[in-house]
Design the sequence.
Protein backbone atom coordinates (compact mmCIF):
# COMPACT_ATOMS: atom_id res chain seq x y z
CA UNK A 1 0.00 0.00 0.00
CA UNK A 2 1.47 3.33 -1.01
CA UNK A 3 -0.55 5.47 1.38
CA UNK A 4 -3.27 7.99 0.64
CA UNK A 5 -3.31 9.03 -2.99
CA UNK A 6 -4.90 12.17 -4.40
CA UNK A 7 -5.49 13.05 -8.01
CA UNK A 8 -4.80 15.44 -9.57
CA UNK A 9 -1.95 17.09 -7.71
CA UNK A 10 -2.61 20.43 -9.34
CA UNK A 11 -5.68 21.87 -11.04
CA UNK A 12 -6.08 25.25 -12.71
CA UNK A 13 -9.59 26.12 -13.74
CA UNK A 14 -11.55 29.09 -14.92
CA UNK A 15 -14.08 30.67 -12.64
CA UNK A 16 -17.49 29.08 -13.10
CA UNK A 17 -16.19 25.68 -14.14
CA UNK A 18 -16.79 22.46 -12.22
CA UNK A 19 -13.91 20.44 -10.83
CA UNK A 20 -13.70 16.97 -9.30
CA UNK A 21 -10.93 15.59 -7.12
CA UNK A 22 -10.31 11.98 -6.22
CA UNK A 23 -8.88 10.43 -3.08
CA UNK A 24 -7.83 6.82 -2.66
CA UNK A 25 -7.40 6.05 1.04
CA UNK A 26 -5.32 3.33 2.62
CA UNK A 27 -7.28 0.21 1.79
CA UNK A 28 -8.26 -0.99 5.25
CA UNK A 29 -9.19 2.45 6.57
CA UNK A 30 -12.84 3.04 7.32
CA UNK A 31 -12.71 6.82 7.82
CA UNK A 32 -11.99 9.36 5.14
CA UNK A 33 -11.72 13.11 5.63
CA UNK A 34 -11.62 16.09 3.31
CA UNK A 35 -9.98 19.31 4.51
CA UNK A 36 -9.18 22.59 2.84
CA UNK A 37 -5.99 24.45 3.63
CA UNK A 38 -4.86 27.92 2.63
CA UNK A 39 -1.29 29.12 2.93
CA UNK A 40 -0.09 29.37 6.51
CA UNK A 41 -3.36 28.10 7.96
CA UNK A 42 -4.50 24.89 9.59
CA UNK A 43 -6.63 22.33 7.77
CA UNK A 44 -10.27 23.41 7.70
CA UNK A 45 -12.73 20.56 7.99
CA UNK A 46 -15.01 20.03 5.00
CA UNK A 47 -16.59 16.61 5.42
CA UNK A 48 -15.92 13.05 6.49
CA UNK A 49 -17.10 9.51 5.89
CA UNK A 50 -17.19 6.34 7.86
CA UNK A 51 -17.25 3.61 5.25
CA UNK A 52 -19.77 4.87 2.67
CA UNK A 53 -21.78 7.01 5.09
CA UNK A 54 -21.16 10.75 5.09
CA UNK A 55 -21.20 11.59 8.79
CA UNK A 56 -20.88 15.35 8.68
CA UNK A 57 -20.50 18.22 6.28
CA UNK A 58 -19.19 21.55 7.48
CA UNK A 59 -21.89 24.15 7.93
CA UNK A 60 -19.50 26.66 6.37
CA UNK A 61 -19.52 24.69 3.15
CA UNK A 62 -21.73 25.98 0.40
CA UNK A 63 -24.05 23.78 -1.64
CA UNK A 64 -21.55 24.01 -4.49
CA UNK A 65 -19.44 21.41 -2.69
CA UNK A 66 -20.41 17.76 -2.69
CA UNK A 67 -18.55 14.60 -1.78
CA UNK A 68 -19.19 10.92 -2.26
CA UNK A 69 -17.60 7.70 -1.16
CA UNK A 70 -19.33 4.91 -3.05
CA UNK A 71 -18.74 1.43 -1.66
CA UNK A 72 -16.66 2.89 1.13
CA UNK A 73 -13.47 2.93 -0.90
CA UNK A 74 -12.28 5.96 -2.90
CA UNK A 75 -13.91 9.35 -2.53
CA UNK A 76 -14.59 12.27 -4.84
CA UNK A 77 -15.00 15.92 -3.98
CA UNK A 78 -16.78 18.07 -6.55
CA UNK A 79 -16.90 21.84 -6.60
CA UNK A 80 -19.47 23.34 -8.92
CA UNK A 81 -19.31 26.85 -10.39
CA UNK A 82 -15.88 27.49 -8.91
CA UNK A 83 -15.04 30.90 -7.46
CA UNK A 84 -11.66 32.50 -6.87
CA UNK A 85 -12.16 32.02 -3.14
CA UNK A 86 -12.12 28.26 -3.70
CA UNK A 87 -8.41 28.44 -4.52
CA UNK A 88 -6.68 26.34 -1.86
CA UNK A 89 -5.02 23.02 -1.15
CA UNK A 90 -7.58 20.24 -0.72
CA UNK A 91 -6.34 17.52 1.60
CA UNK A 92 -7.65 14.01 1.99
CA UNK A 93 -6.87 11.86 5.00
CA UNK A 94 -7.89 8.39 6.11
CA UNK A 95 -7.81 6.50 9.38
CA UNK A 96 -8.74 3.17 10.85
CA UNK A 97 -11.23 4.41 13.39
CA UNK A 98 -12.07 2.33 16.44
CA UNK A 99 -14.33 3.01 19.36
CA UNK A 100 -11.33 3.18 21.60
CA UNK A 101 -7.77 4.14 20.94
CA UNK A 102 -6.05 7.02 19.25
CA UNK A 103 -6.49 6.93 15.51
CA UNK A 104 -3.74 8.42 13.43
CA UNK A 105 -4.89 10.15 10.27
CA UNK A 106 -2.73 9.57 7.21
CA UNK A 107 -2.72 12.38 4.73
CA UNK A 108 -2.35 12.53 1.00
CA UNK A 109 -0.17 15.10 -0.74
CA UNK A 110 -3.19 17.22 -1.55
CA UNK A 111 -4.70 18.75 -4.66
CA UNK A 112 -3.81 22.38 -5.23
CA UNK A 113 -6.68 24.22 -6.90
CA UNK A 114 -6.19 27.56 -8.58
CA UNK A 115 -9.26 29.35 -9.90
CA UNK A 116 -8.46 32.08 -12.42
CA UNK B 1 -18.12 22.32 19.98
CA UNK B 2 -14.49 21.38 20.33
CA UNK B 3 -11.86 24.02 19.54
CA UNK B 4 -8.08 23.95 19.32
CA UNK B 5 -5.93 27.04 19.84
CA UNK B 6 -2.26 27.57 19.09
CA UNK B 7 -1.20 30.98 20.32
CA UNK B 8 2.25 31.07 18.67
CA UNK B 9 1.97 31.69 14.92
CA UNK B 10 5.75 31.60 14.46
CA UNK B 11 8.70 30.40 16.49
CA UNK B 12 12.39 29.91 15.92
CA UNK B 13 15.06 27.90 17.67
CA UNK B 14 18.79 27.42 17.31
CA UNK B 15 19.93 24.06 16.08
CA UNK B 16 20.50 21.61 18.97
CA UNK B 17 18.42 23.71 21.36
CA UNK B 18 15.02 22.87 22.85
CA UNK B 19 11.73 24.49 21.91
CA UNK B 20 8.20 24.15 23.25
CA UNK B 21 5.09 24.71 21.17
CA UNK B 22 1.82 25.50 22.95
CA UNK B 23 -1.67 24.16 22.36
CA UNK B 24 -4.88 24.56 24.31
CA UNK B 25 -8.23 23.05 23.56
CA UNK B 26 -11.77 23.27 24.75
CA UNK B 27 -14.08 20.31 25.22
CA UNK B 28 -16.68 18.95 27.60
CA UNK B 29 -15.67 15.38 26.85
CA UNK B 30 -13.62 13.31 29.27
CA UNK B 31 -12.21 10.82 26.79
CA UNK B 32 -10.45 12.09 23.70
CA UNK B 33 -7.20 11.97 21.78
CA UNK B 34 -4.65 14.64 21.06
CA UNK B 35 -2.08 14.75 18.30
CA UNK B 36 0.75 16.83 16.99
CA UNK B 37 1.21 16.76 13.22
CA UNK B 38 4.13 18.15 11.24
CA UNK B 39 3.87 19.62 7.75
CA UNK B 40 7.28 20.39 6.18
CA UNK B 41 7.36 22.98 3.40
CA UNK B 42 5.60 21.60 0.30
CA UNK B 43 5.33 18.18 1.83
CA UNK B 44 2.51 16.17 3.29
CA UNK B 45 1.32 16.11 6.86
CA UNK B 46 2.69 13.40 9.12
CA UNK B 47 2.01 12.42 12.71
CA UNK B 48 4.63 13.38 15.28
CA UNK B 49 3.10 12.15 18.51
CA UNK B 50 -0.24 11.20 20.05
CA UNK B 51 -1.73 11.22 23.55
CA UNK B 52 -4.82 9.52 24.90
CA UNK B 53 -6.62 11.63 27.50
CA UNK B 54 -7.20 8.74 29.88
CA UNK B 55 -3.46 8.09 30.13
CA UNK B 56 -1.73 10.21 32.72
CA UNK B 57 1.76 9.50 31.44
CA UNK B 58 3.05 12.01 28.91
CA UNK B 59 3.83 10.53 25.52
CA UNK B 60 7.40 10.51 24.22
CA UNK B 61 8.78 9.73 20.75
CA UNK B 62 12.55 10.08 20.57
CA UNK B 63 13.28 13.84 20.64
CA UNK B 64 9.60 14.74 20.86
CA UNK B 65 7.62 14.77 24.08
CA UNK B 66 4.40 16.31 25.30
CA UNK B 67 3.27 17.99 28.48
CA UNK B 68 -0.38 17.03 28.84
CA UNK B 69 -2.27 18.95 31.50
CA UNK B 70 -5.84 17.65 31.37
CA UNK B 71 -7.32 19.99 33.95
CA UNK B 72 -5.83 23.00 32.19
CA UNK B 73 -6.71 21.57 28.76
CA UNK B 74 -3.17 22.13 27.64
CA UNK B 75 -1.07 19.95 25.33
CA UNK B 76 2.38 21.36 24.57
CA UNK B 77 5.04 19.79 22.36
CA UNK B 78 8.70 19.85 23.34
CA UNK B 79 11.34 19.27 20.70
CA UNK B 80 14.77 18.53 22.10
CA UNK B 81 18.06 18.77 20.21
CA UNK B 82 16.34 20.62 17.35
CA UNK B 83 17.48 19.67 13.86
CA UNK B 84 17.21 21.54 10.57
CA UNK B 85 14.72 18.94 9.37
CA UNK B 86 12.35 19.98 12.15
CA UNK B 87 11.58 23.19 10.25
CA UNK B 88 7.88 22.88 9.45
CA UNK B 89 4.36 23.89 10.37
CA UNK B 90 3.18 22.08 13.47
CA UNK B 91 -0.50 21.46 14.03
CA UNK B 92 -2.17 20.40 17.24
CA UNK B 93 -5.24 18.22 16.66
CA UNK B 94 -8.10 16.81 18.71
CA UNK B 95 -10.45 13.89 18.25
CA UNK B 96 -13.15 12.12 20.22
CA UNK B 97 -14.22 8.55 19.58
CA UNK B 98 -17.44 9.67 17.88
CA UNK B 99 -16.40 12.84 16.07
CA UNK B 100 -14.03 14.19 13.46
CA UNK B 101 -10.42 15.32 13.84
CA UNK B 102 -10.09 19.08 14.19
CA UNK B 103 -6.89 21.06 13.85
CA UNK B 104 -5.46 24.21 15.35
CA UNK B 105 -4.19 27.10 13.19
CA UNK B 106 -0.60 25.93 13.38
CA UNK B 107 2.81 27.18 14.52
CA UNK B 108 5.52 27.79 11.97
CA UNK B 109 8.82 26.58 13.42
CA UNK B 110 12.16 27.59 11.95
CA UNK B 111 15.34 25.89 13.08
CA UNK B 112 18.30 28.21 12.64
CA UNK B 113 21.74 26.72 11.92
Sequence:
Amino acid sequence: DTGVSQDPRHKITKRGQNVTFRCDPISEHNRLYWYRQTLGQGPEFLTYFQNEAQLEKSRLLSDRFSAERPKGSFSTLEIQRTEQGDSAMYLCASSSHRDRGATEAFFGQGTRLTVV
Amino acid sequence: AQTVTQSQPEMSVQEAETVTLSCTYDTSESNYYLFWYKQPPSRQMILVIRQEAYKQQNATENRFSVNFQKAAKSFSLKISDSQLGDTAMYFCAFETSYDKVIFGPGTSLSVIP
Notes: Chain A touches chain B at residues 33, 35, 40-43, 45, 48, 55-56, 91, 93, 95, 98-105, 107-110 (CB under 8 Å). The CA atoms of residues 21 and 77 of chain A lie 5 Å apart. The longest strand of chain A covers residues 88-95. The two ends of chain A are 35 Å apart (CA to CA).
